[in-house]
Amino acid sequence: MSLVGALLTIMNAVFWALYSIYFKKLGNNNGLIVVSNMFIIGSLILAVMGGILVDGLRTFTGIEWVPGFVSNLLGTSVIGGVVLFLVWYLLVNTVGVANSTPYIFTVPALTLALNYFIMGIQPTLPEIIGSAIMFMGIYLASI
Description:
- By secondary structure, this protein is mostly helical.
- The protein has seven helices and no strands.
- It is globular, with a radius of gyration of 18 Å.
- It starts with a helix and ends with a helix.
- 0% of the residues are buried.
């Protein structure tokens, strides 16, 4: 594991904790509207950071808007962003945060499975071992 990857993982955990605390303070507001606004603000921040850190406007103007790119972008944003977020939101409201949050960690393993079934990409041994450890952690957290 690289130092950058480890630092990003730690930063992710810190921001997730801050988000959870902030979200609880907004408990009287409509949660779907609050989280949707956070998605919009986060997307704008990511776009600005991408423009600053990657390659300026050339990053955005260099995109070739071919049908394959557009369909992948829509699939990722609509299915991966909107639909899965709504499923997670409904789970949190139905079974609670403690019971639904561990399943967020299934995303990497499900991505491996979809890569295999849709694109024929074989998962590597470390990916399989990591997925097994992740599922064991979810199981242990749920008992």
